[in-house]
Amino acid sequence: MDSSAELIAEVPGFIRLHKDGRVERLNGNERVPPSTDHHPTGVSSKDVLIDPETGLSARLYLPPLSSNHHRRPLLIYFHGGGFFIESAFSPLYHNYVNSLVAESGAIAVSVEYRLAPEHPVPACHHDCWAAFQWVVRQTGPGAEPWIADHADLGRTVLAGDSAGANLVHHVAMGAGGASAVHGLGPPIEDPVKIHGIILVHPYFWSSTRLDSELPESAELVELIWKLACPASPGVDNPIMNPLAVGSPSLSGLGCRRVLVAIAGKDFLRGRGRWLYKALTVSGWKGEAEVEEVEGEEHVFHLFRPEDEKAKLLLKRFASFINGGRYHPGRPL
Length: 332
Known about the structure:
The chain is an alpha/beta fold and 332 residues long. It is built from eight helices and eleven strands. The protein has helices at 91-104, 123-136, 145-150, 163-182, 215-228, 269-280, 300-303, 308-321; strands at 7-11, 15-18, 23-25, 44-51, 56-62, 72-78, 107-112, 151-161, 194-200, 255-263, 287-293. The strands form two sheets. It has an eight-stranded mixed β-sheet, with helices on both faces. The protein has a three-stranded antiparallel β-sheet with strand order 1-2-3, with helices on one face. A hairpin with a 4-residue loop joins β4 (44-51) and β5. α1 (91-104) packs across α8 and α2 (123-136) packs across α4 (163-182).
């Protein structure tokens, strides 16, 4: 047997890391170009390069604009995939963000960050922080026109699923002034108050299991984390465990509102409530709520967007993006 073909790490069905350094991704490899979805949504998209040095880029989405011009909420989306698979440009995420833009009427920026293990965590956190900083600078002459001309930066919402929700949390902590603690890079001179964040089936863990968590789930998370962040001694790293010793207080979370979405059959469901409860007793001054969908698995809404529960969840997210005042089918 060729020794270079030997596996040194594998998450079955998702990724293999070979002895010779070759990374074999078994999921999330397809890419689709930006486009104008003439029917049924009318949403347009285009790609932008944010940092030529790292390759950080994003896909921007523009909903149909009415003749009575008004600024739209701004959605920044971080895709999931365990920090090591998927893309903002995959059909799964392109189609979902396109649908979310159509439902909410928001301008969206879906971030294409670097993946582990070639770029171990926290490279993806640094990328998402840099993308957030880029977005909030898009004002005035020379700025990206879809953002500068049509977005209301005062109504910025961050959203992400699974590992993307982890990224959202840490960027929101950085926006509240904790970026130096997380090592995300240069802080924003004036901390930015994000309007809200949506944590969809959030990916967090700790060495102390919750009652709802099975040993096999812990083994899977620890395997994924070791592959994504080999320098970390374990899952009590503050990136995975925001309640670990040395983590900044959740009271500094830099947003006004939080929506935590969980699914009843998701192995991560307990972590959503765990974070929600910790946030509500932290001294944070915002408003937090939980949206639970019973009987569904992890990120079911991405894989079965036509299911009634997925459609309702999409409307729930759209309502949150619009401050809870949006009614589907009515003008913003």
